[in-house]
Amino acid sequence: MKMPDDSWCGCPIRFSAAEIGDRWKLLILRDLAFKKASRFRDFAREEGISTNILTRKLGELAKAGIIEIEIDDGRPNRPSYRLTAKGRGLIPALIELIEWAAKWDAATEVTPQAIAHLRKTWARLS
Fold this sequence. Notes:
With 126 residues, the chain is mainly alpha-helical. Helix content is 59%, strand content 12%. It has two domains: 11-84, Winged helix-like DNA-binding domain superfamily/Winged helix DNA-binding domain (Arc Repressor Mutant, subunit A); 90-126, no CATH class. The longest helix is centred in the C-terminal third of the chain and has 14 residues, at 91-104. InterPro entries: HTH_HxlR, WH-like_DNA-bd_sf, WH_DNA-bd_sf. This is Winged helix-turn-helix transcriptional regulator.
């Protein structure tokens, strides 16, 4: 994402948008955080994302230090992915986005109880 000038330097929203600010990255993060997806095929099947875009987005998230790629010696062609500490730090923000969507999007099917459960689970894990 190219910003118009240097006046955005140091802006936390700019940084966040550059790191995670597209739909595929947010959906990958959601799947890692809440759906326990960890393999390439999990993301491809869940989202219907093309393999070239998925490969690029996973690489961008890894380069940003948000996810890490684990290679199994027995299966080098089947890496798994997991959130790093930096990625886990995004979970509260993802929960806030879920809550925001539940409030403002009539099509969002998330109950207040489900959001409370996410918050409680995250608090226990962090």
